[in-house]
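TL;DR need structure tokens for one chain.
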Amino acid sequence: MEIVIGIVGLLIGAAIMWYFAGYSANSRYKRIVSDAEKDAEVVMKNKLLEVKEQILQMKSDAERKVSEAEKQISEAEKQINNKNSQLQANENKLKQREITLNQRQQEVNKKRLENDAIRATLDNQLLLVDKRILELEKTHRAAVEKLETVSGLSADEAKEQLLDSLKEEAKINAQSYINDIIDEAKLTANKEAKRIVIQSIQRVATETAIENAITVFHIDSDEIKGRIIGREGRNIRALEAATGVEIIVDDTPEAIVLSAFDPVRREIARLSLHQLVADGRIHPARIEEVVSKVKKQIDDEIIETGKRTAIDLGIHGLHPELIRMVGKMKYRSSYGQNLLQHSKETANLCAIMAAELGLNPKKAKRAGLLHDIGKVPDDEPELPHAILGMKLAERYKEKPDICNAIGSHHDEVEMTTLLAPIVQVCDAISGARPGARREIVEAYIKRLNNLEQLALSYPGVLKTYAIQAGRELRVIVGADKIDDNATERLSNEIAHKIQTEMTYPGQVKVTVIRETRAVSFAK
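>> reply
TL;DR here they are.
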């Protein structure tokens, strides 16, 4: 409005100025004033409309703000009402809990009163029990004194007699229980063990190799013997010095004997002789050259044999030195049994038996192959081969369970894993099968005599017989000296003593026989 009034004032002022400026321009001023008035009216109307629109907009904004305020007030009232309702509900709950607590307090007080009454009753009963115990003790002492007077024994002596009788009865019951357990074990465990062992043996076939301390080199004619001996024996001396083998040239037709305890040296000498005879040039310089080449060839063949054996058995990751030792087993023997064949057979048996028992067959095969590596080291120190083999396996980073199986297969160290008894059993199976090993007759007879003498050392034993090539020992005892229960104990004791004091292949069955004979004569 103020703007409109200002504009109108300006227009009127202009008109008046024009009016006073001159009468001649009066009409023109009137027209201009009229036009200005009309324009002022239009401007005023437009400004009035704008003002009305602003007023309406302000009114609308005010009404909207009032509406929003009323809505917020309404929501606040609702929240207050809800909180009041919750407070009322919580107040009701508190009142209910207070009522419940009062009821429980009353019940506790009631129980406390009842417990007090029970405690008082128990105290009275305990007093009565104490009195009754005192009376019983007096009665017991009087009865004991009376029994001691009648029996002539004191209480301690009577206890000792009672304990002796109970011990004897317990021994009889325990022996009966042991017999039942042994019978049950024989029906189940022995049957299952035999099945696994027999199945393992049947599934493995191996060649029987018998090695001696000599090797016979066959020649085409006896004329070659003179060339091998050489002038004044210089060729044979050079050959013996280069190989370390004693070469025996005698009257045996078309044969030369190579004698040495080291199979590798015998093989070097045999191959060297073969090349020298085939080449025809036999003299000391040629002998040294051929022996040197053959030694290198044998070393390569040992490594190749070890690698081929490991591949055939499916064993991977062996240390190169262990592979070389496995190859050297080809030229070693144990009781006439080729060591490499024995180790391969033991490895296959171990894998089969481990698979039957649910163990890892690869680990078992690895332990079986390496169990006798202590027999083939270059330095050969004064140690049992099982301990030496365990130390070698540890040096070349074999796993602890493999090392323990190697070291304990002859009970030199304690068995700590399940692989150890498998290797021990399979080693015994391979060495004890018919034809696997040979024994010197004197050692065999001595072992049988030791078996019989060991059993004769026990009291009550009358006769002993070692039968089945020392695989069974039959012990005959006197019926008047040993009873039935003692025969079982005697059998176990003899078997344990044989196991701890003697060395033997396989196992020895101990059978104790007790019989009663009645003899009469008709005249």
